[in-house]
Design goal:
Distance between the termini: 35 Å
Number of helices: 16
Mean pLDDT: 84
Radius of gyration: 25 Å
Low-confidence stretches: 185-193, 487-496
Structural class: alpha/beta
Helix content: 25-40%
Strand content: 15-25%
Largest sheet: 5 strands, antiparallel
């Protein structure tokens, strides 16, 4: 069982409140070498000075550096320090706030009030569900949440608290909340552990075009069991449970403005091994960033131009017709348009510029199929040919008749053209050491990279057609190796 440790700023603070619990001061944790060498600690940071470069902040920062699991993590402290960050996360919750408090308008005399949230619990029963959701978003032990009504009720402030901020009459509620949290989170699940480590596989049973079908997910679970991992399929509702696991494998289509990115970011900040990591998602999901990255590193791509509104003349002159116009963050061929003439260009551009300041234009390059090379940690896993759908120019045809997918052919890596594999490995190395799918075209001018996907398709009967269960074993084995090494994929960081 992992050991837990509680940090406070002063020894003996609030005598009796933390009796019989492992409590040390922040100064002890920061300066005593014994805590630096200790492994497997799970830390509750109850310091008040959690602002940037404060004592409590340094405790969370060093805890993460030491491989300890800590709440609040540095990312949580950063998010709560700026309203512009946490307000993005609370948009959906604000609708529920209005629904709950709107019903009580006549009974509420004030237009502003605050509640204290302790490990996801609050004294106001009708706000308990909201408190739990906020704790799942921001894993801070103690928070003060302020609600205000202007036109409608909404959350206007969230602040992390220290134990000193609690009133004496809140002591009993605090003890109960802390005991419940320690019991639920740190004493492990009630079921007997079979494996040495825990792996969460994020999927969405309602996703129309998931990156792994049900049979593939089942084979991942089987591979995990064979290698001594307790693997569990989780859903978007399990955000608050990430701390129970040692690793996260995302098998849901990723996007920046989406819970998949929040899952990845949260898992990485808590020290879990995660694929794909948040930096890989940032790099791969934005086609404009990816195009610049590939061009800067002289990786061959179709002639590509980044355009703003008002630059259609330059785009037309450079690429000619037909051309391909893309939104920055589409997937599965969504948001990708083949433009045949000026009128069509203006029509498509007008539509796409409503959602993005920049668009990506590419020279149209038709081939009967695209190559896809699956790459993990710099090693080619599989090679597929994805054929265009009949009578269409893409692999996926999102027409009025519904989505239609073209045929496929899977090859052994050794059977694929060496130039295709080598180019794929070079392109993926610019992203990181995670799991990627590199899409390429083989043309008379050479091999061209179309894009790098952070969340590649791995379906039973397609990508595993040649390697079979060995594909799943290899991926799970990488998770195990990284867990054993005690660190996630060493990708370069993108500055916030």
């Amino acid at each position: 069982m992992p050991e837990h440790l509680i940090l406070v700023e002063k020894a003996g603070y609030r005598k009796g409140l933390l009796d019989d619990l492992p409590v040390i001061t922040a100064a002890e944790y920061l300066t005593e070498p014994a805590w630096q060498q200790k492994r497997g600690l799970r830390i509750v940071n109850l310091c008040r000075s959690q602002k940037y470069l404060g004592e409590g902040y340094y405790c969370s920062l060093l805890a993460e550096a030491r491989g300890h699991k800590v709440i609040p993590g540095v990312r949580t402290l950063r998010d709560l320090s700026r309203k512009s960050l946490y307000s993005l996360e609370t948009e959906d919750i604000d609708r529920r706030v209005q629904k709950i408090l709107g019903r009580r308008d006549r009974q509420i005399e004030t237009t502003s009030f605050s509640v204290t949230v302790m490990f996801g619990h609050t004294s106001l029963r009708e706000l308990q569900g909201l408190a739990r959701e906020l704790f799942e978003l921001f894993r801070a032990p103690l928070m003060r949440v302020t609600f205000e009504k202007k036109t409608v009720w909404r959350i206007t402030a969230i602040r992390a608290l220290g134990i000193q901020d609690l009133a004496e009459e809140q002591d009993e509620a605090f003890r109960e909340a802390l005991a419940g949290y320690l019991s639920k989170r740190w004493r492990g699940p009630k079921q007997k552990r079979r494996g040495k480590y825990d792996l969460a596989i994020l999927h969405n049973p309602d996703e129309h075009m998931p990156p792994s079908n049900a049979k593939a997910l089942d084979r991942f679970l089987r591979a995990a069991r064979r290698q001594g991992l307790d693997a569990e399929l989780i859903t978007p509702r399990d955000f608050g449970r990430l701390g129970e696991f040692d690793a996260l494998f995302i098998r849901e289509t990723t996007s920046i403005d989406h819970h998949t990115y929040r899952f990845s970011r949260k898992a990485a900040s808590e020290g879990l091994v995660v694929m794909d990591d948040p930096d890989s998602i940032l790099r791969c999901t934005n086609k404009i960033y990816l195009a610049e990255l590939l061009q800067a590193n002289r990786v061959a791509t179709p002639d590509t131009a980044i355009v703003r509104s008002g630059q259609l003349d330059e785009l037309e002159e450079r690429l000619g017709y037909p051309m391909v116009l893309k939104v920055p963050d589409g997937s599965f061929s969504l948001g990708v348009y083949k433009v045949e003439n000026r009128q069509h260009l203006e029509q498509v551009a007008r539509k796409l510029f409503r959602d993005s300041e920049l668009l990506l234009g590419q020279a149209y390059t038709y081939t009967e199929f695209d190559w896809r090379v699956g790459v993990l940690n710099g090693e080619a896993l599989y090679v597929c040919q994805y054929f265009m759908t009949k009578g269409h120019w893409q692999i996926y045809d999102h027409g009025s008749g519904g989505e239609v997918e073209g045929d496929h052919r899977t090859l052994a890596v050794s059977e694929a053209p060496a130039a295709v594999v080598e180019t794929a490995l070079r392109a993926s190395s610019l992203i990181g050491n995670g799991l990627y799918g590199v899409d390429l075209k083989e043309t008379a001018d050479g091999v061209l990279v179309i894009e790098v996907n952070d969340n590649p398709s791995i379906d039973h009967g397609v990508e595993d057609q040649v390697t079979g269960d060995a594909l799943y074993e290899r991926i799970i084995g990488e998770f195990l190796a990284r867990i054993e090494a005690g660190k996630s994929s060493p990708v370069r960081k993108i500055s916030d």
